[in-house]
Amino acid sequence: MRILVTGGAGFIGSHFVRQLMVGALPGYGVEDDVVVLDRFTYAGNEANLAPVAGRSRLRVVRGDICDPVVGGELMRGTDLVVHFAAESHVDRSIAGSAEFVRTNVLGTHTLLQAAADHGVGKFVLVSTDEVYGSIAEGSWPEDHPLRPNSLYAGSKAASDLVALAFHRTHGLPVCVTRCSNNYGPYQHPEKAIPLFVTNLLDGRPIPLYGDGRNVRDWLHVDDHCRALALVADRGRPGEIYNIGGGTELANRDLVSRLLELLGAGPEMVERVADRKAHDLRYSVDCSKIGEELGYAPRVPFERGLADTVRWYADHRDWWEPLRRLTGAAGAETLVETS
Ligand code: NAD
Ligand code: TDX
Q: What is residue 281's DSSP assignment?
């Protein structure tokens, strides 16, 4: 089997590839050939693939998903596409959204067209719970209306709809997944958990947006990648699957746990201006993937978070260059590098 992984040099995509290469994903074996297509934006990093670099079954192609020639060439002979490539950071989409529409909407459309033209066997689009908007109580089922608030979420919602229309119109076997907030090793230090942890490791305060009451459901990247493999292997074409982690936490409670893990006091939290259109709470109903594919999260949050903190403490060589390049000490210092 040949698997094309777009965005395979980013946080979640590289975890998926590393897991694939060691045969750790259900339904896939060490004999499968893996092709990574990645543009290596500020978020793509060769170091994320270093543990599996040089393997004969892995080919890494530096290219843009918006380029129909690249996508077309790579689709030939491909059985499965797992599409991670995206602009993924909400704060960047507030600062400027053109790249989000280009990559997330046009790029996804370009890939879908190439996949349909070449008769690809399965196309998994990795989307997000943010497409549903914000929910004060209860949880979203997959057929809940989409009410995205950020430009990032709007661009992801558009790509979901285009993908599902490719299934209906051209019969492309598409599955759309909508996961909650991922965490784990190799996550870029612009995102909340790695930003907070690396700031504390550097003796700098945590920039907490607004009153810190916003709630996120934390999903370990290992659980997410296992769920994606189940969807790729056995998900029904044309269907949407929510994927959650089962640990909802207000940001201020998350921050308290990080302060405790790193032995820091409350003076290391700095309240900063709130994010524009900051969603109050995300919560996905995961019963469908549980009942159909047997998915349930396995990594307990306490252990996952402690391991993640330890990984960042042990891997300064990985994150220090990223912070120097992007100034990832808070949203107000964002600098485009690609
Ligand atoms: P990331 O920002 O770490 O990685 C994105 C990757 O895509 C990078 O390697 C980047 O170089 C590549 N890329 C960007 N534009 C490209 C283009 N035009 N052509 C080719 N490659 C390009 O993102 P992530 O956190 O790993 O997220 C992966 C996917 O999961 C995204 O689609 C994101 O929307 C979705 N998602 C992420 C989370 C999360 O918590 N991180 C939650 C829900 C959904
Ligand atoms: O400096 C910060 N201070 C702060 O309080 C940052 C960067 C974040 N936050 C808050 C905002 C959110 O409520 O922490 C929470 C998490 O923020 P992010 O890590 O930026 O994640 P979020 O906006 O929830 O979006 C994430 O989950 C859904 C991913 O970045 C998306 O790619 C994914 O689709």
A: B
> What's the CA gap between 181 and 14, in Å, rounded?
16
Q: Estimate the crossing angle of helix 221-234 against helix 11-21, to 10 degrees.
A: 70
Q: Is 137 labeled as catalytic in the residue annotation?
A: no
Q: Which helix (H) or strand (E) holds 304?
A: helix 301-314
pTM of the model: 0.97
Q: Determine whether 130 is an active site residue.
A: yes
Residue 122 CB neighbour total at 10 angstroms: 20
> Is residue 152 flagged as an active site residue?
yes
Q: How many angstroms separate the alpha carbon of residue 41 from the centre of ligand 1? A: 10
Q: Distance (Å, rounded) from C-alpha 165 to C-alpha 330?
A: 38
- CA–centroid distance, residue 187 to ligand 2 (Å): 12
Q: What are the sequence ranges of the domains in the chain?
A: 2-182+218-243
Q: 322-333 pLDDT, tens per residue?
A: 998 876 555 443
Q: Cβ(182)–Cβ(224) under 8 Å?
A: yes
CATH of domain 2-182+218-243: 3.40.50.720
Q: Are 36 and 58 in contact (CB under 8 A)?
A: yes
Q: Residue 271: which region, alpha, beta or left (left: phi > 0; alpha: psi -120 to 50)?
A: beta
